[in-house]
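User: Sequence in, structure out. Go.
Assistant: Echoing your sequence, followed by the structure tokens.
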Amino acid sequence: MAIFNSSLTVLLTPLQPEQANMATTFPWEAATSRSTGISATTLADGANLLSSEIDNGTNLDDMLALELRFTSDPAPSAYKPVEVYLIMDLTSADYDDGDATPTDPAGLPVASFLARNITAAQSPQSPYHIPIPPFPFKLLLKSELGVAATAVTLKAYTYKREAVTT
């Protein structure tokens, strides 16, 4: 029997005897690889790259992990960023601002990859646990490297926690 206050909201529901020894854990589910459409391309300094749509309306994942690989010659100054913006689609094909032109999106970046001062291929530290919406979105990369990047590839993985009662 639940106990109610005067506004009829549930305050407490006693455990049934079979529930008394049950525990709920929230392990991570396996990540789903998502196509970004950004593969082996070039990103000029100050330019943007816009990913293909990632439709999260079915999986309803709540977290995103990213992996960026690129090469540049000459080398960028150390710790220059490639910023990542989340461009959301709230009303079906009506994306927030942000496109493949050098125009900056209005929002704040959700992540940054910081480059090293090398000419070899690099994969800066990958950001993860980026919150994502339960509807379609795109990713926008904005280069602040100071030099052009080649062989740019962006990989995306979405995931969530699953409630498991034992």
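User: And one key feature?
Assistant: The domain at 26-165 is CATH 2.60.120 (Jelly Rolls).
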